[in-house]
Amino acid sequence: SQTIHQWPATLVQPVGSPLSLECTVEGTSNPNLYWYRQAAGRGLQLLFYSVGIGQISSEVPQNLSASRPQDRQFILSSKKLLLSDSGFYLCAWAADREQYFGPGTRLTVT
Amino acid sequence: DAKTTQPPSMDCAEGRAANLPCNHSTISGNEYVYWYRQIHSQGPQYIIHGLKNNETNEMASLIITEDRKSSTLILPHATLRDTAVYYCIVRPAPGSGAGSYQLTFGKGTKLSVIP
Q1: How many contacts, defined by CB atoms under 8 Å, are there between A and B?
Q2: Do B49 and A97 touch (CB under 8 A)?
Q3: Over the stretch B31-80, which tens digit does the pLDDT of each residue have?
Q4: Residue A107 vs residues A10, A25, A28, A98, B84: alpha-carbon distances, Å
């Protein structure tokens, strides 16, 4: 069966520091991968999606970037975090008609 | 922007059916209706989806009106573990383009199941 991993589960970072969140998927090949962010009290916002290695589409202009160095690995990065980057970051993968979400990373920028 | 409208919150007594409405009056012919739920501090969980016909699975039933402008998610016997935010989402048919798997989440309905 397919499994999606995200780490770390929680993270507290100062403003201006870099960020790297990792997501890996097991049990499937060539999945579509997604990064979402959920700010406190708000719905999920799609940030990036990828249909293959090295292929990244950005939905929202921001100081975040994404990379897909391997088929089942999706990385969310930032060179300098802002306070507004705080939130719950979710990685997801898609197969057929459903999208499956990882456990999420709760990021607090202080 | 989400293409759906849902009430912000609902209460349901434990053991009773929970009926969650969703309006999607601008839905187009090839768009599906999907339902997800998110339990506090967890990732969203897929529940059910449909195009025209009513659907049922082990978790819920989905009733879509004939004009497809609205739908209702039914949890037949709500339990305390069903307390969550429920999202109704309209999306293109999978495989219709690179972005066809995108899910646009609104604010959903916060369902509280009361003992």
Answers
A1: 53
A2: yes
A3: 899 999 999 888 899 999 999 989 999 999 999 999 999 999 999 999 99
A4: 6, 21, 28, 26, 21
- The C-alpha atoms of residue A95 and residue B81 are separated, in whole angstroms, by 26
Residues 6+ apart with CB under 8 A from B85: B37, B38, B108, B109, B110, B111
The distance of B67 to chain A (nearest Cα, Å) reads 22
DSSP letter string, B70-86: EEEEEETT--GGG-EEE
